[in-house]
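ok new one. same drill as before - structure tokens go in, u give me an amino acid for every spot. 358 of them this time. try not to just spam alanines like last time pls lmao
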């Protein structure tokens, strides 16, 4: 029954997509007055951070093929569409119909343009009726705002933890010159303020940072927690040569206080490092429930500071795989429990950590 013990590492229960992000976007959002301009604002509502796989795992047991085929099929259809025109259009039409049935909730926002300062002001007010993406029937949504075609400049709201009707109430300002639209001043005299239905977003937006396999073991009688950083794969390349020099930092926190910090060795020039390095911590049984383990993968750089590739949060307050792995460890005292985790952007995890835990 302990299929997730160390020996099972090669075939973990879940695919290593533990925390993939599913954006829901209003895209493209083209206000009447912006037609003709290259500027398109995209509001992407993202439900991430330990995004659930738990559901996936369960479904996997029941009807894995169908689900996967459907997902794969979609992707393929899209690509074919790009190459073959007509056929693709048909596919897309069907897709649209399918998606209409799914609920993604809606978002209230405002758009205003200041011609004196050439500022486009985007207000993200609130969302409603969002789908549950995490274990426990909830989501940790935030909104990403950027413009097309240049996605570099983007803003994000704070993450609203475990909230399907989040109030963001945040404003973002883009510097853009809309000279083309001078004759349309009239429309701009009235800022846009509306609710729009969200649609399913594209997966491509998600930046893949890589996956890490971690084994956890807790011995209650000895009050000893052992964390083994086993290996990582498909890490994002952070150096010019298309590789990284990964090492892993393990931080143990208790009630916001950093208890201990450990690091693995650096593995040079690889995106699939093998570590198998263990760290032990003394944590009395009375404290273990409230402990947070933060695992960050860095690219070591000789010059300058190391780049964070991605981060994982396990333990108290975590959601999705991070919570499940911790529970599995507690449910199997004295046994190592290994699990793959998808790395999330460091800033996102840090942002989520700041939120009070309910
Ligand atoms: C544009 O911004 C400037 C400076 O922030 C302000 O003085 C001006 O009233 C704004 N114009 C409009 C139309 O909001
Ligand atoms: C949003 O923020 C404004 C000003 O910061 C405040 O007056 C308003 O009450 C807030 N709305 C909500 C729903 O929190
Ligand atoms: C990991 O390292 C330990 C010794 O530190 C070794 O006994 C064990 O076999 C290694 N595990 C794997 C899967 O290589
Ligand atoms: Ca680097
Ligand atoms: Ca490097």
């Amino acid at each position: 029954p302990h299929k997730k013990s160390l020996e099972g590492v090669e075939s973990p229960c879940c695919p290593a997509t533990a925390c993939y992000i599913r954006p829901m976007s209003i895209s493209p959002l083209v206000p009447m007055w912006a037609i003709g301009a290259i500027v398109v604002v995209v509001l992407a509502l993202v439900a991430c951070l330990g995004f659930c796989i738990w559901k996936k795992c369960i479904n996997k047991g029941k009807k894995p093929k169908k689900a996967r085929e459907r997902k794969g099929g979609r992707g393929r259809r899209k690509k074919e569409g790009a190459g073959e025109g007509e056929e693709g259009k048909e596919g897309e039409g069907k897709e649209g119909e399918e998606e209409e049935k799914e609920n993604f909730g809606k978002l209230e926002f405002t758009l205003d343009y200041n011609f004196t300062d050439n500022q486009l002001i985007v207000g993200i007010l609130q969302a409603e009726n969002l789908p549950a993406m995490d274990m426990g029937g909830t989501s940790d949504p935030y909104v990403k705002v950027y413009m097309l075609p240049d996605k570099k400049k983007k803003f994000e709201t704070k993450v609203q933890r475990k909230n399907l009707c989040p109030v963001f109430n945040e404003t973002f300002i883009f510097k853009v010159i809309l000279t083309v639209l001078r004759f349309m001043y009239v429309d701009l005299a009235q800022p846009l303020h509306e609710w729009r239905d969200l649609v399913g977003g594209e997966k491509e937006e998600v930046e893949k940072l890589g996956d890490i396999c971690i084994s956890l073991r807790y011995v209650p009688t000895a009050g000893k927690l052992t964390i083994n950083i086993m290996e990582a794969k498909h890490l994002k390349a952070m150096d010019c040569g298309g590789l990284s020099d990964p090492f892993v930092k393990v931080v143990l926190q208790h009630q916001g206080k950093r208890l201990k910090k450990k690091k693995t060795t650096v593995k040079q020039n690889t995106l699939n490092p093998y570590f198998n390095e263990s760290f032990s911590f003394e944590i009395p049984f009375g404290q273990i429930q409230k402990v947070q383990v933060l695992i960050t993968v860095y690219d070591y750089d000789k010059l300058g500071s190391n780049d964070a590739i991605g981060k994982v949060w396990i333990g108290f307050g975590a959601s999705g795989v991070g919570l499940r792995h911790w529970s599995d460890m507690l449910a199997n005292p004295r046994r190592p429990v290994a699990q793959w985790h998808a790395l999330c952007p460091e800033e996102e995890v840090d942002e989520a950590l700041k939120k009070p835990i309910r």
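The chain has a mean pLDDT of 72. and btw The longest strand covers residues 119-128.
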